[in-house]
Description:
The protein is an alpha+beta fold. The chain has a single domain (2-132), classed as Jelly Rolls (Sandwich). 26% of the residues lie in helices and 38% in strands. The site of zinc ion (ZN) has 4 residues, from loops.
Amino acid sequence: MTEVIRVRTTKRTSIVNITQAVREVVKRSGLKEGLCVVYTPHTTACVFINEGADPAVVQDIAYALEKLIPWNDPNYAHLEGNSAAHIRSAIIGNSRVVPVVNGELALGTWESIFLADFDGPRERKVIVMTLGA
Ligand code: ZN
């Protein structure tokens, strides 16, 4: 089964916890044992899994990405002016696969699934596909 989650971001860099929305898709799918693919079809957004309990963690991830891959760099070639967003998205990747066991995402206690938008604000799509029985 496949569903699309739509996420409205609010800032240029927005990291949104989408775990609950993904859990609901898995529940609706009726999948008991298999895989859940979480994919975002954008070149300046990405999907990652990390700590969701303390929001300071994703704040630090955004801070470190800004430091490593600054928004402004006179040597970027891409004329659209959002090279940093493309590079951050390329490095992190636009999908994750999570095992589903006993009908539940097998995430660790502190893990959450995030959509990161590096060129917002805008509406982003996340395709959630469940595979298995
Ligand atoms: Zn671009």
